[in-house]
Amino acid sequence: MSIQFGPEWRDFENRLTRYPQVTEVNLRRALTASLLMIEADAKRNVRQDTRRLAGSINHRIDGTYPNLLGRVGPSVNYGANVEFGRRPGRMPPVDALMGWVRRHWNAAHTGPVPAGQLRPRRAAGRGVTQDMIRSRAFALARAIGRRGIPPRPYLVPAYRRNQAAIVALFGRMGVRINAYLAGGPAL
Fold this sequence. Notes:
Strand content: 5-15%
Distance between the termini: 39 Å
Order of helices and strands: HHEEHHHH
Number of helices: 6
Structural class: mainly alpha
Largest sheet: 2 strands, antiparallel
Number of domains: 2
Strand order of the largest sheet: 1-2
Shape: rod-shaped
Radius of gyration: 26 Å
């Protein structure tokens, strides 16, 4: 008894040979789409002052098939402090807070803000010296060092909100690859 394989076998063998390339293309597409969903959601929901943190949130894909790794996150140093908070301990650098103090200066208010009230936002005007701004920045840094900063997560909630869509995206990718092996087009 002899068994002969027809042209279908050669077609299937060619598909198996191209399987890693087709899978990598589909995996990169699904990974990029999922990272973009998380990135967009995080940018929309992050706390904003100058939008520097939101503007620094980007994604990237490292590695090659089958070891691809997708990352989403900010490129600024303080992004982790916003996401996870900051425990009491060391003071942050005073110079890092100078710009914030300039933007949120309120000459009429020098003490702590009562709970539940917001400090009016008004930039430092004439008559405000650099020493006055540095003094307030030092007081703010000392308060952060003593009390810490509460977390204001933006990345983890963005992932959780998009998790079902991401799982569905990778599920559809698996269906496309199976269809390709069964004779469908290489998408």
